[in-house]
Amino acid sequence: MEFQEKLTTHIGQTVEIATGLQVTTGVLSRVTDSTATLLAASASGYGGGQNVTIPLERITFVRVV
């Protein structure tokens, strides 16, 4: 199973996605052949979440939380 396919099995779950620069936590909402998108919580008091799209090639690890 390829990374993209494995990641797709976790859509709807809360995950941490790490790149070389940061770790982003949110609900995985979409996976394409080149990107993963998650709904990350915004700062307290600033309304709803924010969609964050991360290129698969930049992901160093994913942890389901």
The run of helices and strands is HEEEEE
Rg result? 11 Å
Cα-to-Cα separation, first versus last residue:
21 Å
The class by helix and strand makeup works out as: mainly beta
From the spread of the alpha carbons, the general shape counts as globular
What would the CATH topology be? SH3 type barrels
- When the domains are counted, the total is 1
Which regions have little confidence, pLDDT < 50, spanning 5+ residues? none
- Report strand %: over 45%
Give the rounded overall mean pLDDT: 92
Q: Mind telling me the CATH class?
A: Mainly Beta
Total strands: the figure is 5
Q: Biggest sheet, strands in spatial order?
A: 4-3-2-1-5
Q: What's the story with the biggest beta sheet?
A: 5 strands, antiparallel
Helix content percent band: under 10%
User: What is the second-level CATH architecture?
Assistant: Roll
- Number of helix segments? 1
Can you describe what's shown?
The chain has 65 residues and is mainly β. It has one domain: SH3 type barrels. It is 9% helix and 51% strand. It has 1 helix and 5 strands. The chain has a 5-stranded antiparallel beta sheet.
List keywords for this structure.
single chain; 65 residues; mainly beta; SH3 type barrels; five-stranded antiparallel beta sheet; 9% helix; globular
Quick overview of this protein structure:
The chain has 65 residues and is mainly beta. It contains 1 helix and 5 strands, in the order αβββββ.
